[in-house]
Structures are given as structure tokens and as C-alpha cells.
Amino acid sequence: MDIIELIKVFILGVVEGITEWLPISSTGHMILVDEFIKLDVSAEFLEMFLVVIQLGAILAVIFLYFDKLMPFDYRHGWKVKKDTFSMWFKIIFACLPAAVVGILFDDQLNELFYNPLTVAIALIVFGILFIFIENYNKGRSSKINSISEITYNTALIIGIFQLIAAIFPGTSRSGATIVGALLIGVSRTVAAEFTFFLAVPVMLGASLLKIVKFGFAFTSYELILLIFGMAVAFVVSMITIKFLMSYIKKHDFKVFGWYRIILGIIVLVYFMIF
Prior knowledge:
The protein has helices spanning about 5-20, 25-35, 45-50, 55-65, 65-70, 80-115, 115-135, 150-165, 175-185, 190-215, 220-245, 255-274, and strands at about 70-75, 80. It has about 270 residues and is mostly helical. The chain has 12 helices and 2 strands. It is globular. It starts with a helix and ends with a helix.
């Protein structure tokens, strides 16, 4: 096993664990990282790896929010938690637009929009939106302050913003859903939590599709790289999620907006020059 390849996978796992949850676009960062870190693997495995590594990030959400996500109260005779079941129905409802479009048009959308220009524009546009919305909401009270207050209409609107992220790489799935939630009066903490929960079926589904597409014929070398990348993404995701939830209790999202704008400009300039 080449230690250099493990270091590359470690870096990719760190990038995934940070950028999947902060609203700054994991795709934008992966495009830049891929320019400098080339894994010594087949193109088919790399395409699958960059998606399936997200399973490590998802396990972090499940670990941190197990009680909130579990629809049964296993401590008291496996009683049904109606609020949690209701939340899951809303999550699935919110995921439908992106799921339908993803299943039907995944390859076509990648061919059309997976390029540095689209990513850079999406980074900048949603960065501006974050700053605008936070300025607009300054001094206003949130209308929705708990997950249970999210209605099916609210979930659908958030789901449509998730669809935008599915179509345009660089938008950031978490960034798009948080922007959509803030626009309709959801509090920052609830917007972030609902975004984390939305990621569970979306990323599990995306990972399953990529694994089925790739096939299960992993070499031992490929399997080690994949498991190691997922493990790094899991640990870093745990730290990132805790940081974000602590940060937004006292601060707004504007810093991420400015970061997105700067990163978008860097992506544009880099690919114009090179």
C-alpha cells in the first residue's frame, strides 16, 4: 500500500468532512483539490469514490442525531414517536424533486453543468444570496423555530432549493437548502438541522446508485482507500457539525457568503489562466 495514496485520501476525506456540512460547496473544493491531488486509480473508481466517501459524513449525522432520527423509542418498549415519523415523511417529500430529476437526468446534467464556470458562478451567486438574506432578516423574528413546525409546504420549498443544488454543481446542497429555509422564515439552527437530516436519504441514495453503477468488484487496494476515506470523513464531519451548530447560535451565515464569493473568483481566475 502506497503511503502517498493514503495521504491523498486523507486530504480528500478532510475536504469532504468539512465542505459537505458548511454551506461552501464540496464540489467547488473537490474540483480545486482534484487539480493538485490525483489518486492513482481508474476514472470509474474515482467517480464512485468521490460520491461514496459521503457515507462517512452521513454516519456522523446518524451518530450525532440518532435519538432525533430514530422513529421508535427503544428505551421504553419500542414505542412509535409520531413527531419523528412525521419529520421523516416531510424529509422524503422534500427529497422527491431532486430524486426524480437525479434518477432521470443525472448523466445529462453532469455533462451540461459539471464544469468550473458553472461551479464558480453558483459559488458567487449563492454567496451573494447568503449576504442579502442575512441582511434582510436582521432584526426579524424567525417564524419556524423547531423541526416539528416545518409543514409539507415548507419542506417542498426547501426541497426545490435542494433540486437547484442537484442541477447546478457548486451551489452546495447544504447552502441551497439553508438559503431556501432562511428565505421562508426558518431559524438558522432549524435550517441547519433539517439540512443535515435531508442529507441522509439523498446521500445514501446517491452512494447506492454509484456503487451499483460501478459494481461490487472492488480490489483490496480500492476497498482500503474507500474505507479509509469514509473513516476520515466521519471523524471530520463530527467536528464540523458540532462547530457549525455552535457557531450559528451566535453568528449569521454572512462569513460563508463572503468565503463562497472569494472561492468562486479563485476558481474562475485559475481555470481562465490554466
